[in-house]
Queue: 2 jobs
Job 1
Amino acid sequence: MNLLVCISKTPETTAKISFNADSTEFNTEGIQYIMNPYDEWYALVRAIELQEAMGGKVVVINVGPAENDIVIRKALAIGADEAIRIDGEAKSASYVAKQIAEYAKDKSFDMILLGKESIDYNGSLVGAMIAEYLDLPFLSYASKMKLEGNEATVTCDIEGGVEVLKLQIPFVVSASKGMAEQRIPNMRGIMMSKKKPLEVIGPVDFSAKEQITKYQLPAEKSGVRLIDPQDMDELVRLLHEEAKVI
Amino acid sequence: MSILVYIEAINGNFKKAAYELCNYGCKLAESMSTQCIALTNADSSVAQKLSNYGADKIVNFSHEALHDSKMMTKLISDFAKANDASVVILADNSRGKSLLGRIATRMDGSVVSSVTTLPDLTNQFAVDKSLFSGKSVGTFQMVSNFKIISVSRNSIGVQEISKPSNVETFDASSYSSDVSLVETTRVQGTVPLPEAELVVSAGRGMKGPENWGIIEELAETLGATTACSRPVSDSGWRPHHEHVGQTGIAIKPNLYIAIGISGAIQHLAGVNNSKTIVVINKDSEAPFFKAADYGVVADLFDVVPRLNESLKKFKEG
């Protein structure tokens, strides 16, 4: 089993989001970064489980600058065997997908895994794009995956339920909650991660076809109206007459 | 030129979101002085309903493998080319997300998911999209000639727009799939969280899974769907699919009642687009109160049953 896991770097979940003075750029000052939780907890750990059960190797790939190496080393500490960093600026989903597809196209991976979305841009685009470049099936929002020989049985979240699909490897799959359990790297993993190969390669030319021109924060609430805990009739009245939601 | 909206019927029927998608296509087509074509898997009698929501032309097709993103990408892309579509619009759900990036790549177009506004045609087809799981909004310009978007639920609402359109049928039998569907299971009875208008959610303040009876009773009285915070689903008190927040489901119902949830930033990210937020917490310093419209500072075990009684009285009255 040769598995490729795409990982992205995102601001940590408690990060306070702000922008520069003219609201054209995300303010990175003081922001701590982590591996995108969907990539780490579900895609990476499931790939490592498959490698443990069936042999082969897990390669992680990231598109970004040298600062990302700390996140990549964490993936190696959790249990990936090798890492690739494509030294480009991850400015759009299509750029990232193009770089990963270019790398993967002649490597015959059995499976390419990633999280269902990144928690910063919430695009949910990269996996589908890689699959189209490589002409592979793509399953999104997978919450369970079994493999028997070359046949995979995958449970995917759909609107209001799940569907169970069967297909042959190779394919691309995006992972959602349930696919695996988060693993914390142990000391041995952290020590070994320093010796594992991390190859840096250059990007191919690609220009994005969409650009962010402005950021804004969501409209603020005008302030909470406190209700007397003894008077729930009043809350019901307000929800009906003022908020008009019931 | 045309605008193409792909509208999937679920169990043979359309949900409210399907009509909103059709409305979106119609309004965009009107502003671009072109026609809105709705492509759907629904039977002709169901598909015809889209003529009440602004579709100038309705085309239906039948295929077993709607779940196969590779095949559906070919089908929709071929159809878009044959009908000279410059914009393709999809639903912002897992199905739409499995197609969006693929079709964009195949058609070499600009793509934005989870769009919340109609495009600003005076500003390079600029659309807004929620970012950082609801903590911010970004405006994206789409510069390619071909554009594809998925439209977030409850973005423009639903209105009836009657058009004298009839249903034509598209023969999809030449498209084959190598992904087979074993089974589909949908939650019965309650409205799934992503589409729920009313949500009752509870957190660690509940102290244990055995206490959820009062939450379920309140949800039943309201006709609401139940949800929970991450610590609750991680502890196995409630199923994973109830987890709302940054690493769970992002929702935007009309009413979100948060009970015994402190309101950590990761939780707020997934729910702060709710229209009205009610927070019940005994800690008046809980950060959730800052994001709430209405707050009750009280012991939830005392106040939730009484809120339920008041609601029952209201429903009966």
Note: The domain at 2-212 of chain A is CATH 3.40.50.620 (Rossmann fold).
Job 2
Amino acid sequence: MDFFSNKPVPEKFRDRAQRELGDARAVFAIVGDMDLDGSYNESVMYFTQNAILAFDEKHPDSFRRTGFDEIETAFVKRMYGNALFRVRMKTGETADLLRFTFSAADIADVAALYVNSVIEHGFGEEPVETVYAAYMKQRSFCPKCGRKLPSPDAECINCGGKKKLLSKFAKYVYPERGRLIACIFLSVFTTAMSLVPPYTTKILVDDVIPGAANGADDALARLFAVLGALLGAYFLQYAVSAVRGYILRCAGDKIVINLKKDIYRKAQYLPLSFYDKTSTGSVINRVNSDTATLQAFILRITQEAVVKFFLMIGLAVIMFTMDWRLTLLSFVTIPLVALIGRTFGRRISPKYMRLWRKSSAISTLLADTIPGVRVVKAFTNENAASDKFSRYCDSWFAEDKKAAKTASVFPNVMTFLVSCGTVIIYAVGGGEIIRGNGALTLGMLVAFVNYAGMFYEPVNFFANLSDSYQNTLASAEKIMDILDAEPESDFGKGSAPAKIDGKIEFRNVNFSFDHSKKVLDNINLTIEPGDIVGIVGTTGSGKSTLINLIMRYYDDYDGEILIDGQNIKDIDMSFYRSQIGFVQQDPMMFRDTVFKNIAYGTPNAHVEQVINAAEIANANSFIEKLPDAYDTMLGERGVGLSGGERQRVSIARAVMKNPGILIFDEATAAVDSETENLIQTAIERLIRGRTTLMIAHRLSTLRKANKIVVVDKGRIVECGAPDELLKLKGKYYKLVQIQSMNDELISKKREENFE
Amino acid sequence: MPRYVDANQVRFTLRDRIFLDTEFFSGERYDALEARRLFPVSGGNKYIALLDENGNNVAVIRDLDAFPQEEKQKVLSALDEYYRMPRILRFIKMTEKYRIWMWTAETDKGVITFEIRNHLTAVKPLFDGRILIKDANDNRYEIPKFDNLDKKSKKMLFPKL
């Protein structure tokens, strides 16, 4: 394999490195971004087949060579915002070779594995390949946009399709094009009708009313004829407008509904890491209010903008025909209006963004506290919760006041300028009529002022369009954040083996949620089909993370996980998960009937299937005693059932899937001994012939396990049959001892109490 | 309950820049303890845990500022080695392509360019006026006070707040 490095080797070290390497072959290098004192600087560490050559200005003579024969072990010490590549020497001292930010931490981890592997087994290609895989993963960026990809050959979701904001949203508008085009025609009609009243005013002022004053016989008849025409124009304008409003609303609703559906669908496929970083309140806010903002804007662009544009053209033509000089005069203020509009946009945009954040914080707080109202009440924290909500609302209000200042002042300044234009028309036109030296009549002036007033309306609209555009951009960005986010995996892609036997292998698996702490460290484990494996360890040791990786809740790990010899990333996600039954400590129940909660994930389940599953899970006995039995409607999160009952419903749900692999994560941790027995019997019925992984604090839960895996600080420290591990007198033995003592103490206390 | 220690109960020896050999005046001695701030964002020099090599809590320093200067300096030095949250002095450049931001900033530890994937989650203004930034690689940065930034930096950062 050719030499590789995570970044180009800094120029200043290249020549020196060549000299120091001599004939030795550099296998790979890690380029750091800090010096050993922790300031941002360049540094590099070369790995050969038998030594590490570290170049850093803080090393004496900017260089340190450390032979593998001097090293006892190499490791990466992750700290806060930085990490150290450290070696423990055979002399007992430790030495820091390189300091770097977390951007190089992952590849440094595997480099440490490389060093330790070469020390233990001698040089070989396999550890180099592990480093290379981590290096390739780091290089998994789209060459076009730089976005991080799940794998080097993955298609970039950003560049794959249409990526411009408007074209992305155009797909929601397109299906409604028929209705929208019809609305545009109707709008043009109503706009044309709206041009009639000023003209009738001119006729009334110039012809009809003066005719009556001059005693014309047909004056009244003409008056009624003109008023009839005016009434007809108004009627047509508003009747058509009502029809247009209805069609437009339907089209707008359809657009927003489709958008909401897509966001919700996408949200289902987003990886857990997205939800680790994004609050549920913020997601809810995006589905609800941001889509509404976007809908309003789409309608403004597709409807009003088009109509206003035609209105502007029509008015300009009429006004020029009536009096070109007055028309030009009335245009004087337009550049100023446009300029102010642009300034307004620039000022208001960051304010809207901040406002969105505040509003999102309120949604998040609501999403947190309303479902958790029981906890709030249990801790009589109603006042504190209300105070916190008030604080958030006040903070939003303070931000809104700032935005409101800008949003209120600017449009009124523009309207004032528009009014100035009207005053100019009156001044020039009125003067001309009073002097009587032009062709302008009083009726024409009144009509012209009306038309000019109408003309400023679209001007104002376009000037203010930037306001709603900025507001929409803020919302669109949040929506795109979901629509563009990397989904978990392409469902429907990958293979779907006929059957899963249940052999599970972990090969050199490393994982961290963020870069600050490694949660799983070089996990290697083989579980044979039909094995019943107990995973034990202290809280935070990495047991649940191990399960999360098997479930493919997180795919961003180093190394490989195989099922029946096949990498789980190559298996179709929906098929894969359908083969695993997962029972959690606090099972999630949905606001639905008991029947539907059991049949969740098994559409079209037969009634007897559900009853049988409940029977196996020891749930049927309590369900049939409920007044509405299987039709019992559960409250939010399963309110109405006890913890043990919820757990048994959850086991019944797993039975329905008939999975090849079963996983129990502390399934009996939160229940009393009697319920534990019921659940335990249910579990034992279920696991027969299936590969089963059980995380348990209570070791009594693992009585059927033929293999125990002890996890500590992200590493597997012991693995084997329970009896073997007991003989080892290691960590598992200690756990058993502690628990036996606990059990003894509990039974003694119980006896004392009974006495 | 953790064992809280005050200035008159303990003395330290700094080792390997990060470890504190800790001697309690009651006679107990612990080698190579590591100091961890229990409130790295909000706590200043209060409540600093001393952990052994297995991560077990040996003691908690209630208030480091109440310690003699020499002892305080040793602990601060160990903390400084562990915690790297450079203070951003000014922003030099913020560029965006396809909604991935590259921010270049001058910090008290030098100039750095880092990647921001989503400024809604990466930038967190605190109630005390500080702003915390976490980049795409989970490196952290701090702006002690927004108002103290220069005009250009403020203009660049304001829309992201």
Note: Chain B touches chain A through 31 residues (CB under 8 Å).
